[in-house]
Amino acid sequence: MRRKCIAILLTTLLSFSSFLEAQIVRRAVFDFGSGSIRIHVADVDTQNMQVVHTLYTDSVRVFLSEDLVKQSDKKFSEEIQKAAVNTAKKFKEKALELNATQFYGIATEAYRSALNGEELVRRYHTELSIPVDIVSKEEEGKFSFLTLAMESKLNPNQMICWDIGGGIIQVTYLNQKGEFNIYHAPYGRLSTKNALLTHLKNKSLEKESSLNPVSLTEWESSLEFMHSVLPSAPQDLLEKIKDPNVQIIGVAGHPPELANLDMYQIKHLIEVRDRYLNKKDEELVQNLPFFSAPHAVSDLVLVHAIMKKLGIDQVSYFNTSGSSNSVALLTSEDLWCGK
């Protein structure tokens, strides 16, 4: 009888152990952006759709959109493709060292714009066994919103998620029906800088990569230009922004000196602007990463223009784990079927 009970107990324990093992999966998600590639490796509770432990996050700059604007055929160069594949390969190797068993990635604005974006995505799959989808602007905004909601624990109905990428900005919110609405514009950190180089300084993007130095007069002209090209916002977004119970939350790409404040207003932006005007890249890199200097002022122009266009008084900033959308990607089970 005792042996039978022990056998039953062992069978139960083994079954329970297998059950637990089946619920926790170690995943690696890749965010192939316009200016960088990011990875987030985590243990995921697939039953409760939660990240239970983050093992590794990292980001490497790969300036796909900068490469693309220099190509007359609107295709990524072979050089930048090799850089992207090599970066992803190193990330995949790191994930394997950490015993990740499932892999998935999304590609965003630069891939949507490039005529060979699908080709590069296929290389990730065939050469590295990383399945990657080029997602729409709307899907990208939803992933950022969901990641913010899950990590911040804020009421989704009382927050607006503002994500600034390399090639696009997205302002995502829930309407009165609880449906996703997304305000977006093709102006991110790099695309804004390039637009201002072309339209205000008449510079060739093949020869120039920095907007600096920028004078006060050029700043004012830049603001006027950006305000004219940004699309009008839907009325329900403007009304939601005015609601005192709603927070506007920045999740990625906001200027570092503003993001470090946790909450910022235009007066704070102007203080930073005054420190950046009339300075060359080599002066700005004393306080900024070298890769941020060329678009440091245009980042401020973009944020200022959006705040004015949408009537935003203040922005709170939230540092998400990994990329701005990785937690939602890690926990969205429909994305992982067959991965």
List keywords for this structure.
Nucleotidyltransferase, domain 5; 339 residues; 14 helices; 2 domains
Report a brief summary of the structure.
With 339 residues, the protein is α/β, with parallel strands linked by helices.
Protein model, in words:
The chain is an alpha/beta fold and 339 residues long. The chain has 2 domains: 22-135, 2-Layer Sandwich (Nucleotidyltransferase, domain 5), CATH 3.30.420.40; 150-317, Exopolyphosphatase. Domain 2 (Nucleotidyltransferase, domain 5, 2-Layer Sandwich), CATH 3.30.420. Helices cover 45% and strands 21% of the residues. The protein is built from 14 helices and 11 strands. The strands form 2 sheets. A 6-stranded mixed β-sheet has the order 8-7-6-9-11-10, with helices on both faces. A 5-stranded mixed β-sheet has the order 3-2-1-4-5. Helix 7 (189-199) crosses helix 13. Residues 1-20 have low confidence and may be disordered.
